[in-house]
Amino acid sequence: MAEKELDCRGLARPTPVVKTKEVIDPGEVEKFTVLVANPAAEENVSRFLQRSGYEVRWEEQAGTFA
User: Fold this and answer.
1) pLDDT category, 1, cuts 50, 70, 90?
2) Count of CB atoms within 10 A of residue 19's CB?
3) H/E element, 21
4) pTM above 0.90, yes or no
5) Can you state the angle between helices 15-24 and 39-51, rounded to 10 degrees?
6) Can you name the residues that pair with 32 across neighbouring β-strands?
7) Between these two residues, 19 and 30, which has the higher pLDDT value?
8) Where are the domains of the chain?
9) Residues 30-40 pLDDT 10s
């Protein structure tokens, strides 16, 4: 199982969702971390991943959601 980390901090929407889609589309990643810098991006990425069948769990640390 491949594991990745995707840093989307500072990117305007919808870029974090687009980049997340690029990671999951090949179907090779089952577990990965997406870093975003605000609650709106966290919500958008969460919604997209849940619709795509992923289980989502977020942690906030020093202004970064992972």
Assistant:
1) low
2) 15
3) helix 15-24
4) no
5) 30
6) 4
7) 19
8) 8-54
9) 888 999 999 99
